[in-house]
């Protein structure tokens, strides 16, 4: 199988709502989700607290010329406080099943770091479930370090799961 060709990362657009909602539903798993599996009728992907301005997306083209959104990452200030306006937080990352192994996640993490710097941040953080080994490995390979663990913070699929806090410096803003 030929890996999809990634297009440049771009900001999400309101018109991406349906495609992002479908991507979110199709990738739902207790490996990374703490909310229940979505069921119809589905809510819009974008809402008052989750606008297109918070998301970066990457599209990809397959060998047969088909193109679509291969993944997204959500980047937001962790709080509305001026005292931590220098921090951005990744609050969501999804990669389409058909695009896995093509570097989509790494591309999005790097784009989020670049966008955070562009916004004036000098630090970026995230939370990841302790059993999500692939995501933790990706983040560690991109310079994120474990900064704290909330043991047994979530009860998912019959087991208690740690919430792992990770972060990294972005250098001077």
UniProtKB/TrEMBL annotation:
Keywords: Transferase
Domain of life from the UniProt record: Bacteria
Record-linked Gene3D superfamilies: 3.40.630.30
Molecular-function annotations in GO: N-acetyltransferase activity
Secretion signal span: none
Residues in N-acetyltransferase domain copies: 7-171
PANTHER family: GNAT FAMILY N-ACETYLTRANSFERASE, LD18367P
Name of protein: Acetyltransferase
Species lineage: Bacteria, Bacillati, Actinomycetota, Actinomycetes, Kitasatosporales
């Amino acid at each position: 199988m030929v890996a999809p060709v990634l297009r440049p990362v771009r900001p999400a657009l309101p018109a991406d709502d349906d495609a992002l909602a479908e991507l979110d539903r199709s990738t739902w798993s207790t490996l990374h989700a703490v909310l229940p599996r979505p069921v119809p009728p589905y809510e819009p992907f974008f809402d008052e607290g989750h606008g297109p301005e918070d998301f970066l997306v990457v599209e990809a083209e397959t060998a047969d010329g088909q193109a679509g959104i291969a993944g997204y990452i959500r980047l937001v200030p962790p709080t509305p406080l001026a005292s931590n306006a220098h921090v951005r937080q990744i609050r969501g990352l999804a990669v389409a099943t058909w695009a896995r192994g093509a570097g989509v996640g790494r591309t999005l993490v790097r784009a989020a770091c670049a966008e955070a710097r562009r916004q004036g941040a000098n630090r970026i953080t995230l939370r990841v479930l302790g059993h999500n080994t692939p995501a933790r490995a990706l983040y560690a390979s991109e310079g994120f370090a474990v900064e704290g663990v909330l043991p047994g913070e979530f009860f998912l699929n019959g087991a208690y799961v740690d919430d792992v806090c990770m972060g990294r410096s972005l250098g001077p803003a």
